[in-house]
Automatic annotation (TrEMBL):
Keywords: Amino-acid biosynthesis, Asparagine biosynthesis, ATP-binding, Glutamine amidotransferase, Ligase, Nucleotide-binding. Its EC number is 6.3.5.4. Pathway: Amino-acid biosynthesis. The gene is asnB. It comes from Actinomycetospora chibensis. NCBIfam families: asn_synth_AEB. This is asparagine synthase (glutamine-hydrolyzing). Pfam families: Asn_synthase, GATase_7. The lineage of its organism: Bacteria, Bacillati, Actinomycetota, Actinomycetes, Pseudonocardiales. Belongs to the asparagine synthetase family. Gene3D superfamilies: Glutamine Phosphoribosylpyrophosphate, subunit 1, domain 1, HUPs. It is an enzyme of class 6 (ligase). One of its GO terms (molecular function) is asparagine synthase (glutamine-hydrolyzing) activity. It comes from the Bacteria. Residues 2-179 form the Glutamine amidotransferase type-2 domain.
């Protein structure tokens, strides 16, 4: 996990250096850059794989091609086996993807499994910039006449460049123009979809109930993903929210850690006596983890709220509310580990949100379509919050439920099995699959929003009212957002005012997404 800046075309090295400095928090361990005639690559490193030898940019054998990367390539060892003829310079997972593209071209990105944003450049003007199919790792770009610039966060861009910034689309690769043409213009190609096309139609099984074999398959697929997501040369922990998804992740991760003779670190946050804190504590005791609790006061939450909007670069109320406890959790966890696993994505795969059980999505086909749509929008919502809240402190968050194999196999299950019918609760299928691996009360505990279950929701609601009263007393004008974006509630207006102070030039409709309600 790191932060990257890249520029192609007419290079302003001073601008690139300013951009890189603004995302130092993403990679506090090291800084690297390379300046070529038609490209500039910069890297802020958080050392996780090949801690001593994985410094970036990484060059090829002739120092004629370079790469910087943000994220993790979980099948990097498989790629190295395929590239048996290549002499690798490092043990970095980024180099594996780099060498594969050098040999087979950018279409080979389809074979790369992980979360990543990669920028490559050659001394002859060729290059490539790519983002993983789901958009787990962030990437933004701006086309500025003769120059195209890229960065991991919105805050990296100069104020005068903000109006031109857009979210780089997941699953796409951009290549600069060929020699003799406008090198900044380039071409964009999709190399992979967020959700594999072959599993988009719901596989109906109206008369068939799942079997123990089906449940075992779910356990095996998820266990394999979590094991791969624990790939690291530094300690790995788990964020325990007190809910089903993170408890499952912790249960499997604890076994993997035990096999290595280690004790899994887990981290939970909540106000004194809150439901999430108590539930996480029960899971930790059941699994025997090295458990850490953060018990914030109202002042702690107010302080985190003040920075949450700017840190996550978003003003959607649901994201801001959940970001506040996330920030407190990350600030504590980074004292003990550099990597954490989370339960992001489980609700999208197994229909965990209450709204998907409305009449609008009451058939297998409509439910499947909505699950696919929600996964395709994660990059501008929950994944953005997850990335920024952790990387603000130089902590890497990994999301094993969103592994490509997990998505393919879980979405291939009959969508009918995920409907709340026949006295089922939400995510009934997932609960049955892991019944016995975590405490019974946790397996069958109902879903709460993170900000609510942690006890932060009530406190934050009072703080928002306090902020609104202050703005009203100052007779502040209600802001308007151009480009067709509408502010939907007093809470969202309050957060937007904070966001606008740092990102006044950014177009929300070109960079952000929004939940259906505020």
């Amino acid at each position: 996990m790191c932060g990257i800046v890249a520029a192609y075309g007419s290079i302003d090295a001073e601008k690139c250096e300013r951009m890189l400095a603004r995302i130092h928090h993403r990679g506090p361990d090291d800084t690297g850059r390379v300046h070529l005639e038609n490209a500039w690559l910069g890297h802020q490193r958080l050392s996780i794989m090949d801690v001593t030898g994985g410094k970036q940019p990484i060059a090829d054998d002739t120092d004629s091609a370079y790469v910087v990367g943000n994220g993790e390539i979980y099948n990097h060892e498989d790629i190295r086996d395929v590239l048996s003829e290549v002499r690798f310079a490092t043990d970095s997972d980024t180099e594996s993807a780099f060498r594969l593209v050098l040999r087979d071209g950018s279409a080979a990105l389809y074979e790369v499994r992980g979360m990543f944003a990669l920028a490559m450049a050659h001394t002859d003007g060729r290059g490539a910039v790519a983002r993983d199919p789901i958009g787990i790792k962030p990437l933004y770009w701006a086309r500025l006449g003769e120059t195209t610039i890229f960065a991991s966060e919105l805050r990296a861009f100069d104020p005068e460049d903000q109006p031109y910034v857009e979210a780089f689309p997941p699953g796409h690769v951009w290549t600069p123009g060929i020699a003799g043409h406008d090198i900044a213009e380039g071409a964009m190609v999709r190399f992979a979809d967020a959700v594999p096309v072959e599993v988009r139609p719901a596989r109906l099984a109206p008369d068939k109930q799942w079997t123990e074999e089906d449940l075992g398959h779910i356990r095996d697929v998820l266990s394999d993903s979590i094991r791969r997501h624990m790939m690291s040369d530094v300690p790995v922990g788990v964020f325990l929210s007190g809910g089903l998804d993170s408890a499952i992740v912790a249960a499997i991760a604890a076994k993997v850690a035990e096999e290595k003779g280690e004790r899994l670190p887990t981290f939970a946050v909540g106000t004194e006596g809150s439901a999430d804190l108590l539930a996480a504590r029960a899971v930790a005791e059941y699994l025997g983890t090295d458990h850490h609790e953060i018990v914030p006061t109202a002042d702690d939450l107010e302080e985190a709220l003040d920075e949450a909007v700017t840190v996550i670069e978003h003003f959607d109320p649901a994201l801001v509310r959940s970001a506040v406890p996330n920030l407190l959790l990350a600030r504590e966890a980074v004292k003990h580990v550099k990597v954490v696993l989370t339960g992001e994505g489980a609700d999208e795969l197994f229909a965990g949100y209450e709204y998907v059980h409305s009449d609008e999505f009451s058939t297998p086909d409509t439910l499947q379509a909505e699950l696919v749509r929600s996964i395709e929008s994660l990059h501008e919502l929950n994944l953005q919050r997850c990335d920024r809240a952790t990387m603000n402190y130089g902590l890497e968050a990994r999301v094993p439920f969103l592994d490509a194999t997990v998505m393919r196999e879980m979405l291939a299950l009959p969508a009918e099995w995920k409907l709340k019918i026949h006295d089922r609760t939400e995510k009934h299928l997932l609960r049955e699959a892991f019944d016995g691996m975590v405490p019974y009360d946790i397996i069958w505990r109902g879903k709460e929003q993170f900000g609510d279950g942690s006890g932060a929701g009530d406190v934050l609601a009072k703080l928002v009212e306090k902020e609104k009263a202050k703005e009203d007393a100052q007779d502040a004008e209600t802001p308007t957002v151009e480009h067709g974006w509408e502010l939907r509630s007093d809470e969202e207006i309050a957060y937007y005012r904070t966001w606008h102070r740092s990102f006044s030039g950014v177009r929300p409709n070109a960079t952000l997404g929004a939940f259906a309600t505020a």
